[in-house]
Amino acid sequence: MPSVRRVSHSLLERQGLTTVFGNPGSNELPFLAGLPDGFRYVLGLHEGAVVGMADGYAQATGHPVLVNLHAASGSGNAMGALTNAVASRTPLVVVAGQQVRSAIGPEANLASVDAPALMKPLVGWAAEPACAEDVPRALAQAVFEARLQRRPTYLSVPYDDWSADAGDNALAVLERRVLRAAAPGGEQHRWLVERVASARRPALVLGGDIDSAGRFDDAVRLAERLGGPVWAAPSLFRLPFPNRHPLFRGVLPAGIAPVSEAFEGHDLVLVLGAPVFRYHEHLPGRYLPEGTRLIQVTEDASAAARAPMGEALVADPGAVIDVLLESLDEPAAPAAPAGGYRPVAEPLAVEGPGLHPEQVFAALRDELPEDTAYVVESTSTNAAWWRQMDLRRQGSYYFPAAGGLGFGLPGAVGVAMAQPDRPVVAVIGDGSANYGITALWTAAQHRVPLTVVLLRNGTYGALRWFGGLLGVPDAPGLDIPGLDFTRIAEGYGVRAQHVGGVAELRAALAERPDHPRLIQVDTALTTPS
Ligand SMILES: Cc1ncc(C[n+]2csc(CCOP(=O)(O)OP(=O)(O)O)c2C)c(N)n1
Ligand SMILES: [Mg+2]
Predict the structure, then answer these.
(1) Which of 218, 277, 404, 522 lies most in the core, judged by the most C-beta atoms within 10 Å?
(2) What is d(CA 341, CA 346) in angstroms, rounded to the nearest whole number?
(3) Which DSSP helix (H) or strand (E) runs through 496?
């Protein structure tokens, strides 16, 4: 009979999880023994960066990705990064090494005491198999749960299990396929179409799931059929709609009162592929204006169950778009003529040293190809970003989904590894960069052709703005002077330059190196909105 390790490796191969992001320790080495040809182990130097890279890679490929972490300490280091993966519904399969079975009870060094409980509030499913024979089945479950729930899963495996005999039934798991169909059935179909068709002033709110599911272009067709305004859901992590399309009204503000205000005058708000809603700023008010009805369509049953208002249909929002496109009449006159995209405003300039972030973003927009994918983690420049960018393609925009810093740099490395034919640019603040900085080393080792544009304003800009909002104008610990990212990048093996002005920045961006590089630019402080 083959070993647990052999069957598990075969399972991962069959399920397409052959790129492994990890940072190993002694407990994990037995799992890594004899990895078959075709596996690729991408080493990250810190677990936050490991998970960020895997998150970017899984989001860009749309498939589950294996993450290999070291016991409780490595899992703990990864937790902040996992909050983002949970919010973006990224199917990560985390396998952590455990002490040998007989050493867990006495709590030998590197025993992870009650390992599933350590991770459980965060991941969708967590387990430690009750015996070695159950490891291949449990690993298959971890993969299927991640795929079906679209949520990270966690499996802790005692390291003496890998060399154990897999038992007579182990091979059965290799043949398994687990499929899901999620189009609305007859009754639901009729109800939804009737509600949408009878709306006089419908509005559409699209979540990041629409982009993750590859429905960016279909969302445009639906919006043009409905003819109403389109917003992106608050706390956006993927752009589901072209941001200069004439029907696009921008990202909804992340507060109850301003969301309600935006919906004023609409009898129906149809929310596709988003929780209702991921508010952030506490701006209380009524959830919806008088006379506005909300229908949420999401594949995420928990997001449907926990919403505080509206009706919900748990179904694949992409399938629902198809249903609506088939069932709704063509509009008499197209509300949004093709090619009628809204023009871009002139970038603002600043006096004194440093560029306005808008000048930086205008340079990105003009100098980089239209299909560039941007991974953004710069928190005070949100308004400037949307004023200048013109994103018209699926998979153009990624942002830390739970607001946990440390996704941006590693996430960009993962996106670039997943899409070698697409230009990838990380737009990173000088505060954010530090949380995932070690990903630069992985980028250098794998010669990932990533451009990092580092915005150095010397401060945690967004927190200064938040301080005003919360009535805390004098909080300490917000400034971060004295950081030179060109020297840090060079230390990790990434070529770097400091650009002084717009012309120099544009000239640098026009180059297309086949290796990673970092461009540091000093910027003026702006506010997120
Ligand atoms: C892991 C984590 N720690 C702390 C924070 C709080 N936080 C939110 S925005 C921010 C500042 C980020 O600064 P920077 O990247 O320089 O962007 P800027 O606001 O200056 O544009 C911080 C520290 C967070 N979101 N995540
Ligand atoms: Mg900053």
Answers:
(1) 277
(2) 16
(3) strand 495-499
